[in-house]
């Protein structure tokens, strides 16, 4: 049985100096209860906490550790580069190399602008869309998360196509009025929102694979119909690929689904897990970005050499060895089949969603296709399952509304241990 003495002590200390004791809310274990586990180090797919307990990792730093933690080539590249300083606040040749690599890998983009997080990337993409179209409003989907910028912290109003309203204090009603919400996978709802705001919508932003209501896949034809609506109405389609970028395929969701986006946003994967993000698009749109155009966006640490060398090294590996993607998908399918078997035997209601190397378990008997159906999952069962798995050395996302992310450092032995842990956990929950 794992002991958490040191983690408990650290959490007590952290709450004295950090709001809630954490620097990102989900880490506080509020939705699962108990004391957060404080991680000391990680290698491959094994996390080690401050009490020296080890866990098989299914968070992968929320996506970017596609090849595992502390990947040797990435670590060596960082160590070598850091000798030259950590930041210049000036251009470097390395920024050109990684930008060219991203343009070569991802369809339909000509230019990339580096920023410092996925939040910043999505915030900037919306600003670019507004500047390019001359329109203020945009559509987001219930259950999709695009960072904590004011415009995105909006929930749906009472009607299907009403203006949004803030769901965080500090977000002004004026900001919320430009944010429209639609139901994921409901194309008729999208059409209604567009019709109700004819000629006023600059962009539709979507997680092509939703990862923040659990793993939720787009229905067949949904992305294609969004593309058609955008073409007909002069709206920009933005794919938020902070989670799916370079994980589903070399070219991300655009390549995987064969659907073109006008702008794409990326997160920490292009920094090998370091604080970084980017937005990208064709010349026609990106020419509105300062200093070429009037849409302003800047950042001292944007394109800093440490994040750039880490990202360049990781993306080069993925670009040169596309077999990583087929291996990851095969491992995720193996895990899916194993979990399916033990969950069926358990007698609990459940659904499993999977795409590429993203997967989620929902304790519900309803197919999960949007936020409403994801919310039908049993809120009492998931925390029990999470802690039973944690006891058995498996670290799942500490929220039922987060996708699991596999890395290719997972071995089939680890997957078997995970499936066995799930079997034992489900038996303990009865």
Polypeptide structure, described:
It is a single chain. The chain is globular, with a radius of gyration of 21 Å. Helix 6 runs parallel beside helix 7 (222-233). A 7-stranded mixed sheet has the order 4-12-11-10-9-5-8, with helices on both faces. The protein has a 4-stranded mixed sheet with strand order 1-2-3-15. The two termini are 20 Å apart. The chain is 38% helix and 15% strand. The model is unreliable at 156-163 (pLDDT under 50). The protein has 14 helices and 16 strands. The protein is α/β, with parallel strands linked by helices and 430 residues long. The protein has helices at 5-17, 72-82, 93-105, 118-133, 173-176, 187-196, 222-233, 252-257, 283-286, 305-320, 323-346, 371-374, 381-391, 412-429, and strands at 39-43, 46-49, 54-57, 111-115, 137-141, 154-155, 165-166, 179-182, 201-206, 236-240, 263-266, 277-281, 351-355, 358-362, 394-395, 404-405.
Kindly summarize this structure in a few lines.
The protein has helices at residues 5-17, 72-82, 93-105, 118-133, 173-176, 187-196, 222-233, 252-257, 283-286, 305-320, 323-346, 371-374, 381-391, 412-429; strands at residues 39-43, 46-49, 54-57, 111-115, 137-141, 154-155, 165-166, 179-182, 201-206, 236-240, 263-266, 277-281, 351-355, 358-362, 394-395, 404-405. It is α/β, with parallel strands linked by helices and 430 residues long.
């Amino acid at each position: 049985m794992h002991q958490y003495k040191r983690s408990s002590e650290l959490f007590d200390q952290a709450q004295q100096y950090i709001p809630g004791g954490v620097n990102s809310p989900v880490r506080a274990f509020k939705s699962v209860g108990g004391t957060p586990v404080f991680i000391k180090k990680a290698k491959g797919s094994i996390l080690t906490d401050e009490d020296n307990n080890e866990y098989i990792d299914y968070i992968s730093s929320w996506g970017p550790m596609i090849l595992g933690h502390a990947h040797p080539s990435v670590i060596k590249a960082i160590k070598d580069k850091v000798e030259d300083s950590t930041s210049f606040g000036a251009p470097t040749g390395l920024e050109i190399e990684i930008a060219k690599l991203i343009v070569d890998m991802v369809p339909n983009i000509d230019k990339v602008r580096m920023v410092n997080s996925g939040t910043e990337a999505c915030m900037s993409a919306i600003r670019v869309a507004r500047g390019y179209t001359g329109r203020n409003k945009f559509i987001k989907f219930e259950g999709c998360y695009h960072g904590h910028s004011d415009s995105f912290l909006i929930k749906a109003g009472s009607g299907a196509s009403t203006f949004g309203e803030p769901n965080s204090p500090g977000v002004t009603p004026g900001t919320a009025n430009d944010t429209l919400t639609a139901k994921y996978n409901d194309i008729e709802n999208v059409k209604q929102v567009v019709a109700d705001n004819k000629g006023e919508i600059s962009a539709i932003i979507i997680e092509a694979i939703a990862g923040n209501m659990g793993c939720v896949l787009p229905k067949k034809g949904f992305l294609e119909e969004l593309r058609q609506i955008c073409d007909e109405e002069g709206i920009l389609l933005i794919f938020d690929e902070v989670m799916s970028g370079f994980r589903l395929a070399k070219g991300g969701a655009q390549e995987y689904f064969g659907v073109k986006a006008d702008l794409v946003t990326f997160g920490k994967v292009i920094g090998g897990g370091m604080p970084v993000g980017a937005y990208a698009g064709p010349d026609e749109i990106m020419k509105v970005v300062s200093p070429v155009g009037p849409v302003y966006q800047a950042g001292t640490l944007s394109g800093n050499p440490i994040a750039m060398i880490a990202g360049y090294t990781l993306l080069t590996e993925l670009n040169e060895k596309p077999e990583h993607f087929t291996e990851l998908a095969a491992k995720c399918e193996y895990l899916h089949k194993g979990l399916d078997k033990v969950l069926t035997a358990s007698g609990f209601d459940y659904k499993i969603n999977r795409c590429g190397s993203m997967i989620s378990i929902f304790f519900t008997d309803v197919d999960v296709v949007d936020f409403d159906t994801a919310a039908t999952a049993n809120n009492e069962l998931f925390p029990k399952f999470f802690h039973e798995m944690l006891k058995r050395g498996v670290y799942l996302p500490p929220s039922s509304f987060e996708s699991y992310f596999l890395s290719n450092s997972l071995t089939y032995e680890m997957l078997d241990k995970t499936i066995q842990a799930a079997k034992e956990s489900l038996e303990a929950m009865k």
